[in-house]
Amino acid sequence: MNFVLGFRGSVNRWECDENDHLNVRFYNRMVWESLHSALPALGVDGDWRLHSVHQRYLAEARLATPIAGYCALVAADAEGVTVLVELRNPMRETVLASFVCVLHGARAASQAALQLPKHAGARGIVDGAPSLEDVPLSALAAHGPVQVGSGVFRPEECAADGVVPFYAYMGRISDAMPNLWARLQTEEEMAARSEGFQGGAVLEYRMAFHGMLRAGGAFEVWSGVRHVAEKTQQFEHLLYDSASGACIVSAQAIAVVLDLGTRRSVVIPESRRARMQALQIH
């Protein structure tokens, strides 16, 4: 693949979350910067918008980790282009995370049809996975999810034209997650989290964008459980326009419970499984 460098930076303390690693909103911000910087060099132009992005998180990026964002054109057709963005640790020559971005409205100077590397392909979340994206906000609670976040997008979160960029949606979904954990975790797990012994990590994420919000737009975040296995848990997160009741972003995520000492995943307790079943999407 012909990769073009679009971003170079590092992990700041204020970008790390309660798990002491780079928060997903900042991974996505680096992807946004990489795309805007590298697309012209890839021969891509047009008034594009992000239609969907499939994300794989392969290694932790902790404080002061150097990060470089590389972009490669994967496919192009009349509808738009697909671009692979890899966030790498250039000192170790390892891929930290991969993002397969489908851009509608983009035009490429040349056609492309390249095979994705194995680490960038879907693993547990595939295109066309079941979603509640077509369910109006007023009917959502009947399907199992609960409201975990709400607010208004501030001007400083938005692009120069006032449009909410995709990484800001990810940030607000991430901000809402403690309200979900509070419903799912046992008292013992909550104590372990508050004392810094236990946290969580996302392995895979797929976001689809169905509309657009601007500065001042009110929103709600709703979440529910799709599946739970021995160590992995799959969620659906939906961000709605509070005024119209329309779904703006739908997302599926696979995450694990993380031992913050060993930095390894642990088995999900049976008591937590019972709590998760109460939020099962149907």
Q: What does this protein structure show overall?
A:
With 282 residues, this protein is of the alpha+beta class. The chain has 2 domains: 121 residues, Thiol Ester Dehydrase, Chain A, CATH 3.10.129.10; 158 residues, Hotdog Thioesterase (Thiol Ester Dehydrase, Chain A, Roll). Helices cover 18% and strands 38% of the residues. It is built from 4 helices and 13 strands. Strands 1, 3, 4, 5, 6, 8, 9, 10, 11, 12 and 13 form an 11-stranded antiparallel β-sheet that branches. Strands 2-7 form a two-stranded antiparallel sheet. A hairpin with a 4-residue loop joins β5 and β6. The N and C termini lie far apart (41 Å). 37% of the residues are buried. The mean pLDDT is 93.
Strands, helices and their partners?
Layout: E1 4-10, H1 24-38, E2 44-45, E3 49-57, E4 66-76, E5 80-89, E6 94-104, E7 107-108, E8 146-152, H2 166-184, H3 187-194, E9 198-209, E10 218-228, E11 232-241, E12 247-259, E13 264-266, H4 270-277
Antiparallel strand pairs: 1-4, 2-7, 3-6, 3-9, 4-5, 5-6, 8-10, 9-12, 10-11, 11-12, 12-13
Attribute tags:
282 residues, alpha+beta, Thiol Ester Dehydrase, Chain A, 2 domains, 11-stranded antiparallel sheet, 13 strands
Provide a compact summary of the structure.
By secondary structure, the protein is an alpha+beta fold. It has helices spanning 24-38, 166-184, 187-194, 270-277, and strands at 4-10, 44-45, 49-57, 66-76, 80-89, 94-104, 107-108, 146-152, 198-209, 218-228, 232-241, 247-259, 264-266.
